[in-house]
Amino acid sequence: xxxxxxxxxxxxxxxxxxxxxxxxxxxxxxxxxxxxxxxxxxxxxxxxxxxxxxxxxxxxxxxxxxxxxxxxxxxxxxxxxxxxxxxxxxxxxxxxxxxxxxxxxxxxxxxxxxxxxxxxxxxxxxxxxxxxxxxxxxxxxxxxxxxxxxxxxxxxxxxxxxxxxxxxxxxxxxxxxxxxxxxxxxxxxxxxxxxxxxxxxxxxxxxxxxxxxxxxxxxxxxxxxxxxxxxxxxxxxxxxxxxxxxxxxxxxxxxxxxxxxxxxxxxxxxxxxxxxxxxxxxxxxxxxxxxxxxxxxxxxxxxxxxxxxxxxxxxxxxxxxxxxxxxxxxxxxxxxxxx
Length: 339
What we know:
By secondary structure, the chain is an alpha+beta fold. The protein has 16 helices and nine strands. Helices cover 53% and strands 13% of the residues.
């Protein structure tokens, strides 16, 4: 395996840092830390370049908060200077990691995403009779720092770059030597790459008929129940052994004709439906906008725009009859009767 020679000079190049600043600031121009950084842009980038090259760049300064979308999570958002660092690093390291991934890995990749993963799942459901579906229990908090560092050393040879990655990885932990922060750009790339060996095992070792992975949600197909179960045993051995992960129970093994839930959709060979979580999210978002209208927080135009954004979450599913039933049960007319 040929390792990449990208190093700190490429990461700390002026053009790369300037581009990293623009990407990190996108959609956040109103935030005070971004405005302060922009006001002293040359000095900030010069200091960041110096710190990267001499190995003293500060890492691990993060703001933590909780979200419930779609399930409870603790987000660790790096400070703005560190976000610029992460963008500068992944501008060169990200493509190297991306090229090592199999084509049917869909998270955090240009031209991929949840919808592409869903359509690929339906493609395999139509062609192969049996599947197995797993996900990892507490995936980001369970990633082993030492294992991840060894995997990165197989892709990169510049010691300065590897030391920088190692410092970023070690700056956060949920248990000693474990855990990546949800909310950091580097974590997305590292976590996606961490399971690449499982993908390769399934495709090249087990010769499964098809595979789709979205971060730690993984499904594969075979011609028989025995084939998918044999692959499951080998995946469990690798994931729970070398990678130090735990596969969540229950593991779903079944016939493709019955379909399953994946990335927010109930996927069948001939239909694409909203999952229960997707339906619940639609109801919650609609209720939120209606309450905002009733309290005068938004005007009628903003209410219409809000409903349009809620509707987008259902457009790719065969959900029109379900939406009509929801409007019949919970009509909007009473809210607008005073207009």
